Amino acid sequence: MLASLKFKDFLHPRPTPSGIDIDCKLKHFAIITYAVDAHKFAGLFPTRFQLDSVMIDGQEKGLLSVVPFMDVDFTSAVYPFPVFTMGQTN
Question: pTM of this prediction?
Answer without folding.
Answer: 0.69
